[in-house]
Design goal:
Blueprint (H helix, E strand, L loop, with lengths): L16 H9 L1 H30 L3 H30 L9 H23 L4 H35 L4
Helix pairs in contact: 1-3, 2-3, 2-5, 3-4, 4-5
Length: 164
């Protein structure tokens, strides 16, 4: 969290006034706003394909491609998110306001990357690969929840007069 406290409420604002201005004027804010729901849509399709494979044994190729697409979108949103964080907070990752979200994002990326490595090396069975993908997806859902919570906090702070 940023060290700025607002209006005697005891709550800490996510952004200083300057950071909020940079956030609101940055094209990277729009990029994140487009990529986040895109990534979620890709996740839902991929999740359905992975579950279909695990339940029926059919559609391994489609599930695999969908996981790779999901991983690519994840990498894209991570890189552009780091740029956004640099523009807004002056550092590429682990800004105090988003420290724990970034820490958990590393776990999300590690599991998605582990899937790609396992796929390329051929280390696990197809069912094992899909189980690893589901573990990666579980961490993604938690991480998405973290960011949605921060978005909610920012909106609530904006309504309360704190710099959101």
């Amino acid at each position: 969290m940023s060290g700025q406290s607002g209006s005697g409420t005891g709550r800490t604002a996510l952004y200083t006034a300057e950071q909020r201005a940079r956030r609101d004027s940055s094209r990277w804010t729009i990029v994140q706003g487009v990529l986040a729901p895109l990534q979620f849509a890709v996740f839902l399709v991929s999740l359905a394909l992975v579950l279909r494979f695990l339940l029926t044994g059919e559609g391994y190729g489609a599930a695999t491609v969908s996981i790779l697409v999901k991983t690519g979108v994840l990498y894209l949103i991570m890189v552009t998110g780091a740029i956004w964080e640099k523009v807004v907070f002056g550092q590429y990752l682990f800004a105090p306001a988003f420290f724990w979200e970034d820490v958990f994002s590393m776990a999300v990326i590690a599991l998605h990357t582990a899937y790609v490595v396992v796929l390329v090396v051929g280390y696990m069975s197809p069912a094992g690969q899909m189980a690893l993908a589901l573990a990666a997806y579980a961490t993604y859902v938690i991480n998405a929840g973290q960011f949605l919570w921060k978005l909610r906090q920012a909106r609530l702070q904006g309504m309360s007069g704190l710099p959101a």
